[in-house]
Amino acid sequence: MVSLRIKSLDSLDPRTVPLPNGTEVTTGADRRTLDGARLVRQGAVGRVTATTDEGVTVLIVGVGACLYPRAELTPHRMGQVRYAVERAANEGALRPCVVLEATVGSRAWNLSDAGSDTDRRGVFLLPFSWTAGLAEPVATLVSADGSDSYWEYGRAVRQLLRADPNTLEMLWVPEVRALDPVAEALIQHRDIFSSVEVYGTFGRYALSQARKLAQSMRLAEHRGVVLAWLRADPTLTLDAVGARLAAEAHDATPDGALRCTQYVKQLYRSMHDQGILPVAEFAALTHFAVERSMDFDLPRELRPKNAYNLLRLVASATHWLRTGAPLIGVEGDLRERLLRIKRGEVPLAQSLAWTEEMAGELDDARAHTVLPRRPDVQAADALLRAAREESARRWFARAPGPWGLDAPEAPAVSHDSDGRATLDAPPQG
């Protein structure tokens, strides 16, 4: 079987490859956190959150954010080098092939403020030459900062048929633009993708996530309790902490103490996986409790403003099921609630309770919905075939533009010195 990969990856300097937001990196120098409060030693592992002319901002979980020159960072895993190189090359080559673009997120939902980012989603159509060879067709384009994401036409259609929230809402936001006639049909015929499926992908999904957050919140509360106990008495053993936690949780079942002991083990293993503890051991957790736990933040997913989109998704699904159209720009009391959650003015428990309270309305909306049971698969197939045929027509007609005369050069396949088939990244342009 032919194995395709980016050619000459081993010759790349890991200190110069692109670092998209979210890339896990290892630091190559001591740096203080941006607030100056902590010294982060060389060799720490964190994730890239921003890249500017001043440098690269890296978040060290449980410690804080630091600013590094690019040369002081290396990708933590070689697979991320491969992804970064491929992402940059594909985006540079295929950005002219974007046929649909939409401004999404808080700016589309009427929830933006002065500090809101501008997030874009869209669709690109591959030139015929990019689909005809051994190379697997590119499925996504993502900007380095993660604010712009585009799906290949076929992938977008399949996601629309699955009622994927990010893809489906894209066709209804106020600022959705067809940049080429092949995308106009997606907007004109967007109703073929509306169906009762939104009940699950929007509504029930958001409710399940809210319940997971509630569980995580309880676990985080237990984490705080465990760290406080160990800070006050570092001589406590793992079994003693487990028994005490079972009593705190009023779990008097025969296996209660064992379950709580397993939770403590999961806690220090998770903190090790996040790079907070040097080793996955109870002793490391005790040391952390004594030395560092006072300024340990909540996990990012448990910060109250991160729950506001769950309430919005349930409200949108309910409105869609009842009226046949999604709720995009929010108004009135719902908008005020969402803004308060976003600003961190509402406790996480309250925002999750508001989401849970809508479960009955969501079920009633499904019972009386105006939407069809399934999306129109035949119409969607016709849209995709028409787009593919138009791409091929322009290629063979050598029409002006990125699908004909000006099409970006497709990746070339060759053999390396080991006799393995390799895939050269397309030239950026």
Structural write-up:
This protein has helices at 78-94, 106-109, 153-161, 165-170, 181-188, 198-232, 238-248, 256-273, 282-291, 308-323, 332-342, 348-357, 359-367, 377-397; strands at 24-27, 31-32, 39-40, 45-52, 55-60, 64-68, 73-75, 98-104, 119-124, 140-142, 148-152, 176-178, 413-415, 421-423. The model is unreliable at 1-8 (pLDDT under 50). The chain is globular. Helix 10 (308-323) runs parallel beside helix 13. The strands form four sheets. The chain has a five-stranded antiparallel beta sheet with strand order 6-5-4-1-7. A five-stranded mixed beta sheet has the order 10-11-9-8-12. Strands 2-3 form a two-stranded antiparallel ribbon. It has 14 helices and 14 strands. The longest helix is centred in the middle third of the chain and has 35 residues, at 198-232. The two termini are 32 Å apart. It folds into three domains: 9-76, Roll (SH3 type barrels); 84-194 and 375-423, no CATH class; 195-373. The chain has 429 residues and is α+β, with helices and mostly antiparallel strands.
Helix-strand layout with pairing:
Blueprint: E1 24-27, E2 31-32, E3 39-40, E4 45-52, E5 55-60, E6 64-68, E7 73-75, H1 78-94, E8 98-104, H2 106-109, E9 119-124, E10 140-142, E11 148-152, H3 153-161, H4 165-170, E12 176-178, H5 181-188, H6 198-232, H7 238-248, H8 256-273, H9 282-291, H10 308-323, H11 332-342, H12 348-357, H13 359-367, H14 377-397, E13 413-415, E14 421-423
Parallel strand pairs: 9-11
Antiparallel strand pairs: 1-4, 1-7, 2-3, 4-5, 5-6, 8-9, 8-12, 10-11, 13-14
Helix pairs in contact: 3-14, 5-14, 6-9, 6-10, 6-12, 6-13, 7-8, 10-11, 10-12, 10-13
